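yo, Pca operon transcription factor PcaQ is done. seq:
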Amino acid sequence: MDRRIKFRHLEAFVAIARAKRMKRAAEQLNLTQPAISKTLKDLEDILGVTLMNRDRAGVRLTPEGQVFLQYAEQSNAALQQGINSIASLSQAGGAVLKVGALPSVAAQVLPKAIEQFRAVSPSTILQIEEGSHDFLTDRLRSGDLDLVIGRLGAADTMQRLSFTALYAEMVVAVVAPDHPRRDATRLEQIQDNLIIYPPEASAIRPLVARLMISRGLALFRDRIECVSGAFGRAMTLGRLQPVWFISRGVVADDLDAGRLVALDIDMGPTEGAVGIMARSEENPSPLVGLFRMALAETAKSSDAVSAGF
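structure:
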């Protein structure tokens, strides 16, 4: 946009178009008639077209003016909405924002996004709920949650929901550092091992199942189905030494610290999008919009997230 165009130009033009008379528009804006007339002339000079014809009956929009009016009104309305949103944020003391998060997001992306969000809206009360994909999306649809951050689910689980991708993440198969099969490179090598496997309600279950099918393998018989980070971590480091299939974000810190080891198995087919889910029929509130921005900025700048690709 031409930087010479200022808000006062748009405000004056819209006021004149609505009032249909220079004098009336000038009074509404607390300006003199010569001042508002000059503002309109300046705008026309910048655009290089005549926006209004003036005569004793008032003003009439030219075809160019009729086109420009639509966008000038939209610009003014958008700016006013922004001003109102800022005001509502400053008055949002005690407001509650209810966020659902899958385990991988709760462990890695969410804490950093909350830090950024609270720097702008420190008085907002955040309620964070962790759970399976089906559980959280059901609560989102019912209005018990304002948004959910997690993996894109199957089509039947995403009805009436929108999805905005943030990053991609794989499932990993992890073991304790002293696991006897820590050098395994194929799924066949761990088939007789105890497995911690994602349950049916989890978003990663179909991805791991697809991986198994692509390798021509049946579902592991000796398995415990769970996606709890606390349980999986305790079991994997315990006496039974299972192999744990879990989203990389849940165990990223453990892998970096050497507390767990990812098997060198090709897990490419398990890569999936992680993003923000919201009710598709709703316009986000200023608080929800601000939190979405914090999530997007965190996902874009986080080294930990980029390692999940």
